[in-house]
Amino acid sequence: MDCTRTTELINAYLDRELPGDEMLHVERHLAACAVCAGQRDQILQIKQLLGSLREPEPPCPFEPAQLDLPGAALAARRWTGLLQGLNPAHLFTRRAIAAGLAAILLGAGLAYGGARMAVEPSPLESAMLDQMVVPVPLPASIELPVRAPGYLIDMSSDLGARCPVCGQPLEQPAWAPPHRDRHAGRTVRFTGGPGARR
Amino acid sequence: MNNTTQTALETSPAANPRILTGSDRRFFEDLCAQHYRQAYHIAYRITGNRARAEDLTQEAMVRAYQSFHRYRRDLPFANWLYRIIVNLHIDDLRRRPKVWTESVEDLPGLAELPDYGSDPSDVVISRQIDVRLQDALNQLPKEFRTSVVLCDIQGLSYDEIAQVMDCSIGTVRSRIHRGRNQLRRILGVATEQKNS
């Protein structure tokens, strides 16, 4: 297998979505080709980071009463962004605040908008902007819920296809999800990732 | 038939199979409560905007409620809900493309990002990673972004993603491949700009 073919398959390989023979071909090529192995490490890093993103807290919990919202109220909510519930007083307050803010912003924007564009960023702003373009640091180890995709990532590591929790061999990719469910609720610390090896 | 009568009939469980009652209603509410946070997470990652994610999640719940009589209970509810979210999002983008924002920087501060724990240095680093990754995700075409989010964040298989996005497994494979390559380039470009 050459580099072009490996590059085409490398994502499916990391996702354990290739048939067994193609998995082996890719694995052999990666063991012999530093360029493709580097590419694998970069994709693996992105997968790990995406998998480690935590769930944001919803602004408000699920309320069954939302299910009974009439279509018009739902549409109004989507289009105006003003309706947080069915409380008219709340809606009125939010609209009043929005109107006030709009007036203030309009006046301030007309007076100072052009000048503001020419102002140099403050040292704090510069530092924050610098932080935005710093390479994403790769943790040497990472702790993920067993349900997370990282469980499957570890399955494709140099350690071979073994469960990272109990060590049981899982020779077929299809075995991983049902086996993973046995460890639901537990977390696994993955160490020795690409960042740790550098 | 006047409007009042028509509305009364539409909201009557006997006249409208889309109105759930009793144990069906409680079952549906339990499912929604169980999957609400995950659904919001998906919506947040594919929209990149907290307010739009909230709207999208709530509308998806209502759509799921209205279509629950068509839900096959032998299939995962979560995947069915994701499919509704993805379809609503795509419809929304088609309706009002100019309103779509492609950056998380319109968020009013880091306070809206997920809570990453109590260690201040961990919090800062984690939030920076979150912002950078979300910003990179937002730059992907919607099909690529959705495929990558469902695969890498939600942990769905290619087969499940194909069902959610109503396309073939080959298309999913291609979208994930191209999406991740674009992510590599976007994150790499940022590094080069910093170094230059």
How does this model look, in words?
The complex is a heterodimer of chains A (198) and B (196). Chain A is built from 9 helices and 2 strands. By secondary structure, chain A is mainly α. Chain A has a two-stranded antiparallel ribbon. Chain A is flat, with a radius of gyration of 25 Å. Chain B has 196 residues and is mainly alpha-helical. Chain B has 8 helices and no strands. Chain B has helices at 3-10, 22-47, 50-66, 77-95, 120-138, 142-153, 158-165, 169-195. In chain B, helix 3 (50-66) crosses helix 4 (77-95) and helix 7 (158-165) packs across helix 8. Chain B is globular and about 55 Å long. Mean pLDDT of chain B is 75; it is low at 1-15, 98-113 and 189-196. Chains A and B meet through helix 1, helix 3, helix 4 and helix 6 of A and helix 2, helix 3, helix 5, helix 6 and helix 8 of B.
What keyword list fits this structure?
heterodimer, A: 198 residues, mainly alpha, two-stranded antiparallel sheet, 9 helices, 2 strands, B: 196 residues
Summarize the structure.
The complex is a heterodimer of chains A (198) and B (196). Chain A has 198 residues and is mainly alpha-helical. Helices cover 56% and strands 5% of the residues of chain A.
